[in-house]
């Protein structure tokens, strides 16, 4: 299993470890400590969650170096999620009602932006779409193949609503698969979303392992 | 998978139903087809085409027995030395029997077909390499092979808009067969889960059951004692599990039987004998 | 657009826009792997309704139009496209079920050969034009300024009912024409005529579920006769342990219903009525009659002694007696008469004989119940027949028409060559065809108006055969029209009506008209409807309106029909009676362009993608033909060639060629496939009603030197001792289960 290591953090780990380096056994202990620390840092930063992972979830393991996919409007998740602290499911309402989370209908954007930030260029562009009666043609970032059945609503139910204790911020759960949206404008794919990624999490968290549960 | 693994699993593979099989079943889907009610009209077959993205193969390929009809109606004449078939024809709806001890499962070289915890015989298209051994071994011949990439020709624009997004469109080189509308089972189970309740009888209907004008096809969970299909199996004295020597039934109105029962494949489909006035 | 008020039409439009990209398999060929980011598009809705959730199907109620039974349907709609049809559980016609033709409705709608733009004949060829051009041309000939002579206008339709019927009648009245020809190949018009004359009601309710014994003279009630899905529902009760009904089918070639009979009796063609009289006489003689038989009737019946009837019909005397015993012992009985009997030279007399037998066995009031008619007469069904085709053909021959409209009919395909309809049709100066597909009639049009499919259009339907209560079934669009240059039938007719009448000015389209018309129905029919929106939404949600209707009363006229008994002589080994049977699936040929229907094996022969000629093994042996041999079948008015199919479910003096194939146009799935037996029918008429006697054509069969591969569903014809379909004798059941 390979981890992508955030450069900044490993160099700080290294700085720390050089202080601890000594000779002989101490040296090896130091290396072990370094490795352990690097592993700890790596794990926490490959999840890239400043938010803690909820205790009842064994998070999925795996990352993906996604690019920024150009979208019709460069929708800033960071403004909406980090600054305005809007709940993911305010816009992506279908996540708990359907198999697909879906992109919010343009009326949802319009609902706020008919009065908010109406002079900003991206909002102007949005209004153009609305007046034309069209929705922007977003490019899908998080996709699974056509032969896979993935039910958002079941995952939300399992990890958000049926949790033993309440999840503080739903981003903690959504971010496990969708990455740290708070740092992104348009969504970037930060998790591989391949079968191994799903299957490991299923195994760790007691999800179904039957092929026909997901292969349709 | 290590060799030890294979050996361990193989001995568990064909445990019979009384010992829990090789799963603990949470559901055990079964069907009862009443041949007394089946009129052979083909509605079920057409509904299956509509629900499951079945390709139409055309005349030449049909002639080579390459047609893909997961549910087919067979028509038999009763062979008497008479001038006319005075007793009419015998119609048999035949689909994958979802055998408890399926003969198709052990022969797949890549384990693309296996038994699910629901009692279904699953076919995973992604894993299939197209050896076709499974249909070779199937006594009912209910498995169908995609000899061609039908998606290139079977749905000229805009016919492809009719395709059901709940299941795949299969590519060349892959075996397929009746799934007891697993996409509907999945949807029914998901719905029940979302509503925090158990799956009730009638929540899941297969396409063929839903359309059958006479109600000849009954589908449900045989683990639920009060489901319609369980009651039928019980009333007509057919049990799951290995074939035991047929004891004559005490009542001619007990009409249940399974096809090729003596092959010990443990089908999940029970047929009810048709009743005809033979004294006319 | 800032404050968007949406009604249902606009909503559907939104769905259409939203739906185009969302569906993975929707627009492109299905991709198998998309793990890459940014490959597929996902287009959200603009302003969806509350109940629209992507990924979750929405069900809308509508009416199936694949035949004329009027079954209610639910269409499963995902992301703006209709995927699957299920039956509407609320419809008393089909109670939640459909037949294979209903299932195939989605392929009729999404058919790749639909006409997508208007066409006009210019320099001998049909060329695409705009609706403006088409409308101008239409108005030129039938518009308010056109000086059309109404007497020289004709309109050929299929069976019509509901508000479409009202509009057609209105336009006919406006144009001053009475030449409306409602034409259907598959019809029960002779049965209706007899019921009207002998029972006082044209379409009484037939309680198959209550019968103990059904004697069906060629009525394929599970396949094509009147309302097959409804009858199949009742048949299930007929076969239940409580009833254990007995089905006796009398026909020369086995139909789907015949395949399910307890006793299949191949009586000689055209003698079914005589058989009925023989049974009636036998029963009256034994005192098994359930009504008083006047002496005169008794005397007329006495002519039909068992020996004579056995000789005429070819059915053994013992069998005739056995059938009579069944009707008496396993009461109540029900006698039906279908196409092979109705559509023969003495069809009316034969069906009358069947009805007489019904009266004698006391079926009237027990298994034959009065119908419940829909109270608004204008909306009641006008059932199509073949007499209208004959009248239309005659009109064409006499060059009586300058302008002809065709909608819901394909007379160029269905008319026998003997009527010389095609030449007459071609010489009509202006022919307008309202059509979805390039069928034979459409290809001969001067103006082609491309119509919405049944899943894109509004309509109301009042079935000719009513069941529990009088139903008005609503047809509503299940998705936005696929092609922007198609139009709804009602919309086009209203546009024409507006030209001559102010009554229609308030209606921008047929939808608006329907809403108003339905609201204007008296509350005695609809029930209280104080709030328009509630009433309308409720109607659409349910998909239909079940009203109390007007119950007819049944009388029973005991009269013995008179038959002209032709002396029966055996023909030569190559002389046959042609049986051009309709079947569940292809029907009268209208579904030949649907791939599922072509691929579905015929229920009795299991042949696919072609036509065939059924022969009994004895007849085949005498001819020296085997399966797949191409034979020529010649009547006095033409010949067809098709492949042989041998089986025992047919009389040796009869050759059965199914309806449906032999299309010369009609798209890629139907064109150039098989033979059309309708073409070679001799113009024999049913003596009383003037209907075309389709089952009265004598043909000569000759071998060609050619053989083709007969393509049918594989597998053996016999069970060969394998225990596939086990049959238990009902007698054994009775003896072991007691009363049962």
Structural features, described:
The complex is a heterotrimer of chains A (216), B (280) and C (740). Chain A has 216 residues and is mostly helical. Chain A contains ten helices and one strand. Chain A starts with 6 loop residues before the first helix and ends with a helix. Chain B contains seven helices and eleven strands. The model of chain B has no long low-confidence stretch (mean pLDDT 90). Chain B has one domain: Alpha-Beta Plaits (2-Layer Sandwich). In chain B, the strands form four sheets. Chain B has a four-stranded mixed sheet with strand order 8-1-10-9. Chain B has 280 residues and is α+β, with helices and mostly antiparallel strands. Chain C is an alpha/beta fold and 740 residues long. Chain C has four domains: 1-56, no CATH class; 128-184 and 376-549, 3-Layer(aba) Sandwich (Rossmann fold); 205-369, Dimethylsulfoxide Reductase, domain 2 (3-Layer(aba) Sandwich); 575-707, Barwin-like endoglucanases, CATH 2.40.40. Chain C is built from 24 helices and 29 strands. In chain C, strands 6-5-18-17-16-7-8 form a seven-stranded mixed sheet, with helices on both faces. In chain C, a hairpin with an 8-residue loop joins β19 and β20. The termini of chain C are far apart. The model of chain C is unreliable at 1-33 (pLDDT under 50). Classes of the chains: A mainly alpha (216), B alpha+beta (280), C alpha/beta (740). The interface between A and C is medium-sized, with 38 and 31 residues.
Seen as an oligomer or otherwise, the chain set is heterotrimer
How do the strands line up in the largest sheet of chain B? 8-1-10-9
Proportion of residues in extended strands of chain A: under 5%
Distance between the termini of chain A: 28 Å
Mean pLDDT of chain A: 79
Low-confidence stretches of chain A: 1-23, 41-49
Q: Segments of chain B where pLDDT lies below 50 for 5+ residues? A: none
- Pattern of helices and strands of chain A: HHHHHHEHHHH
**Extended strand count of chain B:** 11
Find the biggest chain interface: B-C, 83 and 105 residues
Mean pLDDT of chain B: 90
- Sketch the major β-sheet of chain B: 4 strands, mixed
Instruction: Give the CATH architecture of chain B.
Output: 2-Layer Sandwich
Question: Rough shape of chain B?
Answer: globular
């Amino acid at each position: 299993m390979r981890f992508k290591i955030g450069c900044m953090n490993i160099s700080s780990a290294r700085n720390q470890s050089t202080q601890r380096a000594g000779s002989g056994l101490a040296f090896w202990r130091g290396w072990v400590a370094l490795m352990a620390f690097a592993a700890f840092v790596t794990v926490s930063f490959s999840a890239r969650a400043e938010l803690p992972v909820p205790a009842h979830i064994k998070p999925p393991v795996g990352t993906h170096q996604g690019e920024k996919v150009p979208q019709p409007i460069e929708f800033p998740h960071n403004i909406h999620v980090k600054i305005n602290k809007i709940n993911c499911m305010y816009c992506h309402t279908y996540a708990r009602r359907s198999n697909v989370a879906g992109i919010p209908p343009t009326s949802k954007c319009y609902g706020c932006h008919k009065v908010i930030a109406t002079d900003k260029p991206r909002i102007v562009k949005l209004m153009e779409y609305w007046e034309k009666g069209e929705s922007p043609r977003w490019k899908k970032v998080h996709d699974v193949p056509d032969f896979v059945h993935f039910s958002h609503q079941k995952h939300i139910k399992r990890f958000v609503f049926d949790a033993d204790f309440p999840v503080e911020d739903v981003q903690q759960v959504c971010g496990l698969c969708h990455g740290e949206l708070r740092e992104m404008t348009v969504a970037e794919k930060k998790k591989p979303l391949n079968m191994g990624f799903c299957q490991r999490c299923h195994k760790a968290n007691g999800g179904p392992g039957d092929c026909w549960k997901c292969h349709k | 998978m290590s060799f030890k693994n294979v050996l361990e699993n193989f001995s568990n593979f064909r445990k019979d139903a009384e010992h829990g099989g090789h799963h603990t079943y949470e559901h055990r889907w079964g069907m009862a087809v009443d041949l007394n009610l089946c009129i052979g009209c083909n509605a079920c077959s057409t509904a299956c085409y509509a629900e499951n993205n079945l390709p139409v193969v055309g005349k030449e390929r049909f002639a080579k027995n390459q047609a893909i009809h997961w549910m087919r109606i067979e028509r038999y004449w009763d062979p008497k030395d008479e001038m006319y078939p005075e007793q009419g024809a015998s119609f048999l709806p035949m689909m994958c029997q979802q055998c408890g001890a399926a003969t198709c499962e052990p022969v797949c070289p890549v384990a693309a077909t296996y038994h699910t915890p629901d009692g279904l015989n699953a076919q995973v298209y992604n894993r299939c390499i197209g050896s076709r051994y499974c249909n070779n071994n199937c006594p009912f011949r209910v498995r169908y092979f995609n000899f061609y990439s039908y998606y290139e020709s079977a749905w000229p624009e805009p016919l492809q808009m009719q395709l059901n997004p709940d299941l795949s469109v299969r590519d060349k080189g892959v075996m397929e067969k009746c799934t007891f509308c697993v996409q509907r089972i999945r949807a029914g189970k998901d719905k029940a889960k979302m509503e925090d309740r158990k799956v009730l009888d009638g929540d899941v209907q297969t396409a063929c059951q839903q359309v059958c004008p006479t109600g000849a096809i009954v589908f449900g969970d045989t683990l639920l004692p009060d489901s319609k299909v369980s009651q039928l199996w019980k009333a007509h004295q057919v049990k799951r599990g290995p074939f035991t020597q047929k004891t004559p039934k005490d009542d001619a109105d007990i009409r249940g039987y399974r096809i090729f029962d003596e092959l010990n494949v443990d089908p999940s489909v029970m047929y009810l004998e048709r009743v005809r006035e033979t004294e006319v | 657009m800032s404050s968007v008020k949406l009604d249902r039409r606009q909503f559907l439009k939104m769905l259409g826009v939203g739906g185009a990209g969302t569906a993975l398999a929707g627009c492109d060929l299905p991709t198998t792997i998309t793990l890459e980011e940014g490959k597929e598009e996902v287009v959200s809705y603009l302003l969806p309704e509350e109940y629209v959730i992507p990924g979750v199907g929405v069900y809308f109620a509508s009416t199936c139009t694949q035949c004329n039974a009027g079954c209610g349907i639910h269409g499963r709609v995902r992301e703006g496209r209709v995927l699957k049809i299920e039956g509407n559980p609320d419809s008393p016609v089909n109670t939640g079920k459909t037949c294979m033709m209903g299932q195939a409705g989605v392929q009729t709608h999404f058919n790749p050969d639909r006409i997508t733009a208007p066409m006009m004949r210019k320099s001998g060829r049909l060329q695409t034009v705009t609706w403006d051009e088409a409308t101008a041309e239409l108005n030129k000939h039938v518009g308010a300024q056109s000086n059309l002579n109404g007497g020289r206008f004709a309109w050929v339709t299929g069976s019509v009912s509901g508000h479409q019927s009202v509009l057609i009648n209105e336009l006919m009245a406006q144009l001053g024409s009475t030449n409306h020809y409602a034409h259907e190949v598959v019809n029960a018009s002779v049965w209706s005529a007899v019921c009207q004359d002998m029972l006082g009601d044209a379409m009484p309710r037939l309680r198959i579920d209550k019968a103990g014994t059904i004697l069906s003279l060629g009525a394929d009630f599970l396949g094509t006769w009147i309302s097959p899905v409804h009858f199949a529902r009742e048949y299930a009760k007929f076969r239940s342990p409580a009833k254990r009904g007995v089905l006796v089918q009398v026909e020369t070639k086995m139909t789907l219903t015949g395949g399910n009979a307890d006793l299949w009796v191949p009586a000689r063609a055209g003698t079914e009525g005589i058989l009925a009289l023989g049974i009636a006489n036998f029963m009256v003689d034994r005192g098994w009659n359930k009504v008083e038989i006047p002496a005169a009737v008794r005397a007329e019946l006495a002519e039909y002694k068992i020996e004579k009837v056995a000789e005429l019909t070819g059915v053994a005397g013992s069998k005739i007696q056995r059938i009579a015993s069944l009707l008496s012992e396993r009461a109540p009985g029900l006698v039906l008469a279908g196409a092979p009997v109705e559509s023969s030279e003495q069809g009316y007399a034969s069906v009358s004989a069947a009805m007489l037998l019904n009266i004698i066995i006391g079926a009237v009031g027990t298994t034959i119940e009065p119908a419940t008619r829909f109270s608004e007469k204008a909306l009641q069904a006008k059932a199509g027949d073949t007499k209208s085709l004959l009248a239309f053909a005659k009109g064409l021959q006499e060059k009586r028409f300058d302008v002809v409209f065709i909608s819901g009919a394909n007379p160029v395909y269905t008319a026998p060559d003997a009527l010389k309809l095609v030449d007459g049709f071609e010489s009509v100066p202006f022919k307008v065809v309202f059509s979805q597909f390039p069928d034979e009639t459409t290809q001969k049009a001067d103006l082609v108006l491309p119509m919405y499919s049944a899943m894109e259009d509004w309509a109301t339907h009042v079935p000719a055969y009513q069941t529990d209560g009088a139903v008005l079934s609503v047809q509503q669009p299940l998705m936005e029209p696929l092609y922007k240059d198609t139009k709804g039938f009602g919309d086009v007719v209203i546009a024409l009506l507006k030209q001559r009448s102010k009554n229609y000015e308030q209606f921008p389209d047929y939808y608006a008209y329907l809403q108003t018309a339905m609201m204007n129905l008296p509350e005695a029919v609809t029930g209280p409807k104080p709030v328009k929106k509630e009433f309308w939404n409720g109607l659409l949600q349910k998909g239909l309106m079940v009203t109390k209707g007007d119950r007819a009363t049944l009388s029973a006229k005991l009269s013995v029909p008179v038959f002209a008994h032709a002396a029966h002589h055996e023909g030569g080994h190559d002389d046959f009676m042609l049986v051009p049977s309709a079947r569940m699936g292809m029907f009268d040929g209208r579904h030949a362009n649907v791939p599922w229907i072509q691929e579905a094996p015929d229920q009795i022969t299991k042949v696919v993608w072609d036509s065939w000629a059924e022969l009994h093994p004895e007849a085949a042996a005498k001819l020296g033909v085997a399966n797949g041999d191409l034979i020529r079948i010649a009547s006095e008015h033409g010949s067809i060639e098709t492949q042989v199919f041998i089986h025992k479910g047919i009389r040796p003096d009869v050759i059965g060629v199914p309806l449906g194939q032999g299309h010369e146009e009609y798209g890629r799935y139907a064109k150039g496939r098989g033979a059309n037996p309708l073409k070679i029918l001799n113009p024999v008429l049913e003596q009383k009603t003037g209907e075309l006697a389709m089952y009265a054509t004598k043909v000569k069969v000759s071998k060609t030197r050619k053989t083709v591969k007969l393509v049918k569903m594989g597998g053996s014809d016999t069970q060969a001792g394998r225990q596939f379909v086990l049959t238990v004798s009902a007698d054994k059941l009775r003896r072991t289960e007691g009363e049962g």
